[in-house]
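Morning F.,

Quick status update on the modeling queue. The single chain you submitted on Monday has been processed. Sequence for confirmation:
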Amino acid sequence: MSSSSAMVHKAETLRTLHHRQHNPLLLVNVWDAASTRVVAAHPATEAIASASWSVCAAAGIPDGGFLPLDQALNIARTIVASTDLPVTIDFEKGYATDLAGLHANVLRLIETGAVGLNVEDSQDDRESVYWSLEEQAERIRTIRQAANEAGIPLVINARTDVMVGGASVDEAIARGRAYLAAGADCIFVIGQQPEDIRHLVDAMGGPVSLLGSASSPSIPDLAAAGIARISLGPGSMGVAYAALRDLTSNLINRLPFPADLAFRPGT
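Structure tokens below.
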């Protein structure tokens, strides 16, 4: 199978994983080769997703569009090369404010082997200034056009941040429906409350993605509500580095060496 045919197959597989009734795609987000290999090694893992916050933290750079595009693409390429599973990349705001730049950047991302991306409708790192509905819909159309040009059915997970800024669930739904019409495959909503979830699913008209956390409903409850995709964002890095914090504390307090010291990611 050619590399292009393999990418098409991976993209189509990834898209299919968003359309299973009461069986959401579960994504443990990664940030480098080692984390990718650990997550991909589980036999039930179906796809790999990066998290921009984690990628930036590992590089010592703030999240929110501050990571240089070339560096972001190099990390994407490394993640893709570390697994045979479909990879979707958190592409933040597309690393461009103009449509021509966005189009070019999406083509460069596809060249890394990624078959999906996240794109946000906020314009700044505070997630409090947004593209208008019409502007962001046009940006999503541009992403889809670039993917069509490359011959790869890229899976677009369009994130709306407006509820973080206090917008209503109905505004998030209006944006999501417009983004789906513009070519998005899934709508990633952040800032919602648990009581909003059923309305989001029922009214969106397409797959809905949410962030899992200790305060969110359980995976079975989210599945029953019809959520199509559950990711952890920076939470998976939080778990990994909390373990490192606890190891440091335990060793300083002269506790026994743990068995996990023998664990190594695959190569």
